[in-house]
């Protein structure tokens, strides 16, 4: 581990665009090792002020690079005044609305802290408090937290915020939408008024103004892009469906090559739709608040790695999805608010790629969707779900597996049974999660797509199974269930079958 503040001897450090903005060379080198050499607009706009110690209010769309925009100045401030960690007293606090987003932040932070000798801990609900309390008792430099669990730990005396030097609120607008503002205010009230505060959001509205006026001191505001449509390379479409055709259209879009995210309004709707897709021969995993943390982590990992390419999610759970090659987002249930539409749609067209967004609208939803699109600043193309239209929105040969094959890909891991000397049998541990990514297969409109592979499923939801064997592509019109494949990435998207999804809902 490198000592705090120690820089690498790379010549690139001296001329790095990040160094010119004021980022310490030790941190710039970490980014360079990950092929991050040029700051995004939100980073270039905010870093000079945040590194100078100013309070910053930054607005940038999902995928714009907000995470490094607040992590870099946070770590830089801590290494500028190094001190030994104290039990229960973190020096920096990062608040995030969801467990998935908190985990994503932690993953981005780890290499930065390792390079300069800092420590961190992420805390959220849905898992046991024991390890979190123990880590805080030892002391950490940076605490990444969801508001609910943090308040619980504060109430138990497991953590104190009276020595926090930097406080970050990520996706503040989403915290407001979820009703977290009272909790956020209680937390911020316990941080020193002299500390630096950084607030980042995809939208800036009245809910955010309350926090800004109360907790930010003479903040500098930076807006890196339009508050409406996330990117100009994102195409928006509305498909007019009825109750009978809705299921068929969703199955058709989900069975096209590559990663697809389908959004529902409710947890039950997400679970139900994922099961319906699997029953149609389309492996899918769900992501919503009713899943255990382990299930959510495994399902998201299966989608991120490409082992399963169809994800059905709710709005709240979607905040933790940061996958750069999602080419199709489908609003199976149109959202109520335009901000939710923008956040959902922001899962595609990330990292400079283009993307397609499709909203399914029934006759009774047309008026509300029209108003929502107007508020979002979107003028979508409207069409009927004809075969030619669907193939334009999601190019590529549709692939439908047998029911057994689809269920095998999303089956839960089987416990290993080990005979005991006394004749009894005990269950073994769960199988290891597949770590190999599937190969990229096909393209949609020139965009790189992920291939289907293997993985595992968690309790309470669908995920890819490590026991499911990889298969060689079948000949046209033939199924080859259970055939072993030698190459990697021979998952569902590499199958070719003549069947179309059933027309029943």
TrEMBL record:
Pfam family of the protein (one): DEAD
Helicase C-terminal domain sequence ranges: 233-401
CDD domains: DEADc (cd00268), SF2_C_DEAD (cd18787)
GO molecular function, one term: ATP binding
Signal peptide as annotated in the record: none
Keywords assigned: ATP-binding, Helicase, Hydrolase, Nucleotide-binding
Disordered: region residues: 411-505
Gene Ontology CC annotations of this record: cytosol
Origin: domain of life: Bacteria
Motif (Q motif): 16-44
Ranges for domain Helicase ATP-binding: 47-222
Biased composition (Low complexity): 432-441, 461-483
Hydrolase found in the keyword field: yes
Official protein name in the record: DEAD/DEAH box helicase
Species annotation: Raineyella fluvialis
